[in-house]
Design a protein that fits this description.
The chain is an alpha+beta fold. It has 3 domains: about 170 residues, Sandwich (Immunoglobulin-like), CATH 2.60.40; about 220 residues; about 220 residues, Heat Shock Protein 90. The N terminus is likely disordered. The chain has 15 helices and 18 strands. It starts with a helix and ends with a strand. It is elongated and about 140 Å long. Pfam families: 7TMR-DISM_7TM, 7TMR-DISMED2, HATPase_c.
Length: about 625
C-alpha cells in the first residue's frame, strides 16, 4: 500500500506539470501567439437585454480572470478574435462548469452566426462537445464571442481559456483520467470500509462509508457528471439545492468522524457546533428564499459563503490547537489539515481569484484521494490488531465448543440407548408372551400355529431393528427425504399396537383424509408416532380411565399438514406441560421410565425435519400434534 501511494503521488505530480502549457493560453496572458486582443465584461442590471442590444453597447469593462460573485442579474463576457487567423484549430473552454446557464453567441460583422447553450439549467445532450466543461470549437466565421452568464446558485467567474487543438485534447484527456482515477479510488475505499464494518461491526467504519457515499454524490454533481450522464434535462433550483445540501452533509459527517480523533475542549466544541448550526440555518433560509421567489438574495449568499469559510477556519484552528494532545490528534493533523486547507482555499478563491481555479479543482481531488488512502492505512493497522485478538478469542471459543460438543454427544448417545431400551420393553414383552404360550401348548400346536408365532416374533424383531436404525440415524444421518402419506404411517402403527388396544379395551377413532402427505424421514416420523401412541396407552392404562379412547385427526392447517393424537387420559399439570419435552422428565410413576422418549421425539421432528411437535391439554384429555 505504501509503494502504491508513493507511485501515485509521483504520477499525479508529473501529470499536473504536463498541461501547464495550456494555462499559458489564457486570453489575457498569451502574448506570444497573439490569440486574443482583449476580454471585456458587462453586467445587465435590467436582465432583459437581447444579444442585438448587447452588440450595440460600447461601454465594456476590461477583465482578467476575476470573480463576479453572486448576482441575480446576468453578466455578459465579450471575447475578440480579430487577430486569430486560423480559428478552426482552437477551442474555447469555460471552466466555471457549475453555472446555471451560459448562452454563447458567435458574432461576425455585428450579426450572430451560431448560438449554443450550456449549464445546469440546459439540456446536456445538446452540448457542442460531450465534455463536463463548457467547450466550443471555434471557426473562421467569427470576430467575437459573447457569453451571457446567469447563475443563482454559484458565484460567477470569468475563468475562460482558449486552447489550441493539441493542448485542448491533452487537457481533456488528463481531466477525464484524473476524474476517473478519483472515482475509482473513492469507490474502492467505500467497498473496503463497508466490508470492514460487516466483519468487525465497529461503527466508525459505517460512518466513514456514509461519508464516502455523500462524497461520491457530491463529487458526481460538482464535476458535472450527474447532469452530463444521468439528469440530462435542465435541472431545477430544487434539484440543485438537494445536491448542495448533500454536499453540506458530507462536510458535517466528516467533522463528526473527526471528533473522536481529537481531544477537543468543551469551548471549542461549542464554537464548532454553533458554526455548523449557523451554516445550516443560512443554507435553509437562502434556499427557501430562492425556491419561493425564484431569485437569490445576494446578502444571504455572501453570509452563507462567509459562514462556510468560518466553519472551515474553525476546524483548521482546532487541528492546529490539538495535534499535540495525542497520537490520534497528530494523525488527524496529517490526514485532515491538507483537506480543510484546500476547502478554505477553494471557498476564498471564489471571491478573490489568486490561484487558478482549475488547479484548485485538481488539487482538491488529489487531497480527497490522499485522505481516503491514509485513513484506510490507519484502519488496516487497527484491523490487524483486532484480528490478532479475534484469533486468540476464536481459538479459545473453539476449544470450548469442542468440549461442549463431546459432552453433548455423549449425553445424547446415553439418551438414545435409554430410549431404545424403553422402546424395546413392549416388543420384548410380546415376544416373551408368544414364547410362553408356545411352550405352554407345545404339544397342541400345529405347524400353522408355529409359523404364525414365528411371523409375530419376526415382526417384533423388525420393529426393534427399525427403532435402532431410526435413532442411530439421528447421529449418523444417511437418510433421504421423501414424501409420504401420514395415513400410511398411522395404519402401520395401529397394526403394531392392535394387541395393546384390544387388551386394554381402548376405543380408536380415526378422522382423516387419505391423500394428505408430508415431507421428511418416514422412519423417524413413524417412530415419533409410536412414542406418542405408547405414551397414550400407558396413560390410559395407568390411570384406569373409564371408556379409554384415542382419537387421531389428519388435516391441513394454514397449508401445512397437521397430525393430532388425542387421548382422554389424565391431563398434564399446568406447571409440567412446558417440561414434557425436557430430557429425563416424566409424569409417570414407573421408576424404570426415564422420560427420554418425548425428548428424542422432539429432536427428531424439530431438528431433523424442521417441523413442530406440540402438546396441550384439551377438554377431554391430552393432545399431541405434529405440524408440518
Amino acid at each position: 500500500m505504501y509503494n502504491f501511494f508513493v507511485t501515485f503521488v509521483v504520477v499525479i505530480a508529473i501529470n499536473l506539470l504536463i498541461p501547464s502549457k495550456a494555462y499559458s493560453s489564457h486570453f489575457t496572458h498569451d502574448i506570444e501567439h497573439h490569440i486574443l486582443d482583449e476580454i471585456f465584461y458587462y453586467k445587465d442590471n435590467t436582465s432583459n437585454k437581447s444579444i442585438s442590444d448587447i452588440i450595440k453597447i460600447n461601454k465594456w469593462q476590461k477583465s482578467t480572470n476575476i470573480s463576479f460573485g453572486y448576482s441575480k442579474d446576468p453578466f455578459w463576457i465579450k471575447l475578440d478574435f480579430k487577430s486569430l487567423e486560423d480559428k478552426n484549430k482552437h477551442f474555447l473552454v469555460f471552466h466555471d462548469y457549475l453555472i446555471d446557464k451560459v448562452n454563447i453567441y458567435y458574432v461576425k460583422d455585428n450579426s450572430v452566426k451560431k448560438e449554443f447553450t450550456w449549464g445546469l439549467k440546459s439540456d446536456s445532450n445538446k452540448n457542442a462537445i460531450h465534455f463536463r466543461k463548457a467547450s466550443f470549437p471555434l471557426d473562421n466565421e467569427l470576430d467575437s464571442i459573447y457569453l451571457k452568464v446567469h447563475s443563482q446558485n454559484y458565484p460567477i467567474t470569468s475563468n475562460v481559456e482558449l486552447y489550441d487543438e493539441i493542448n485542448f485534447y491533452k487537457m481533456m484527456g488528463f481531466d477525464t483520467a484524473l476524474t476517473n482515477i478519483f472515482f475509482v479510488i473513492i469507490f474502492l475505499m467505500l467497498f473496503y470500509h463497508a466490508f470492514l464494518y460487516f466483519i468487525t461491526k465497529v461503527k466508525i467504519y459505517i460512518y466513514y462509508s456514509v461519508y464516502l457515499i455523500l462524497l461520491i454524490i457530491t463529487a458526481s454533481f460538482s464535476t458535472n457528471f450527474i447532469h452530463l450522464y444521468l439528469l440530462t434535462e435542465p435541472l431545477s433550483n430544487l434539484q440543485i439545492s438537494i445536491f448542495q445540501f448533500i454536499g453540506l452533509l458530507m462536510i458535517f459527517s466528516l467533522i463528526y468522524i473527526m471528533k473522536p480523533f481529537l481531544k477537543i475542549k468543551v469551548l471549542c466544541e461549542k464554537i464548532l457546533n454553533i458554526n455548523i448550526l449557523l451554516l445550516f440555518s443560512l443554507f435553509i433560509i437562502g434556499r427557501l428564499y430562492l425556491l419561493i421567489t425564484n431569485n437569490i438574495s445576494e446578502t444571504l449568499s455572501l453570509l452563507l459563503n462567509f459562514s462556510f469559510i468560518l466553519l472551515i477556519a474553525t476546524v483548521i484552528f482546532i487541528l492546529l490547537k490539538t495535534y499535540k494532545n495525542s497520537l490520534f490528534s497528530s494523525i488527524s493533523m496529517i490526514i485532515w489539515f491538507p483537506l480543510f486547507s484546500m476547502f478554505l482555499l477553494f471557498a476564498s478563491n471564489q471571491f478573490f481569484v489568486f490561484v487558478d481555479p482549475l488547479l484548485i479543482e485538481y488539487l482538491l481531488k488529489f487531497v480527497f484521494i490522499y485522505e481516503t488512502i491514509i485513513i484506510s492505512l490507519i484502519i488496516a493497522y487497527k484491523v490487524k490488531n483486532l484480528e490478532e485478538k479475534s484469533i486468540q478469542l476464536e481459538l479459545k471459543a473453539k476449544e470450548n465448543e469442542i468440549f461442549m460438543l463431546r459432552t453433548t454427544k455423549l449425553a445424547a448417545m446415553g439418551e438414545m440407548i435409554n430410549n431404545i431400551a424403553h422402546q424395546w420393553k413392549q416388543p420384548l414383552a410380546r415376544v416373551n408372551s408368544i414364547l410362553f404360550d408356545m411352550n405352554y401348548s407345545i404339544e397342541k400346536c400345529t405347524k400353522q400355529d408355529f409359523q404364525k408365532a414365528i411371523d409375530l416374533i419376526e415382526n417384533e424383531v423388525i420393529e426393534m431393528s427399525k427403532t435402532i436404525s431410526s435413532f442411530s440415524q439421528y447421529f449418523h444421518p444417511k437418510k433421504v427425504i421423501t414424501f409420504f402419506k401420514i395415513s400410511e404411517v398411522i395404519e402401520e402403527q395401529i397394526k403394531y399396537f392392535t394387541s395393546d388396544f384390544n387388551k386394554n379395551q381402548i376405543e380408536l377413532s380415526l378422522n382423516y383424509e387419505n391423500d394428505i402427505s408430508t415431507e421428511g424421514y418416514k422412519e423417524e416420523y413413524s417412530q415419533v408416532v409410536s412414542v406418542i401412541l405408547q405414551n397414550a396407552i400407558d396413560s390410559l392404562k395407568t390411570n384406569k380411565v373409564n371408556n379409554p379412547k384415542i382419537t387421531i385427526y389428519i388435516h391441513n392447517k394454514e397449508n401445512l399438514p397437521l397430525l393430532e393424537i388425542e387421548n382422554n387420559g389424565e391431563k398434564i399439570k399446568q406447571e409440567d406441560i412446558n417440561r414434557v419435552f425436557e430430557p429425563y422428565f416424566t409424569t409417570k410413576n414407573d421408576k424404570h421410565n426415564n422420560g427420554i422418549g418425548l425428548y428424542m421425539s422432539k429432536m427428531l421432528i424439530e431438528d431433523g425435519m424442521k417441523k413442530r411437535l406440540l402438546v396441550e391439554n384439551t377438554k377431554n384429555g391430552v393432545k399431541f400434534s405434529i405440524l408440518g
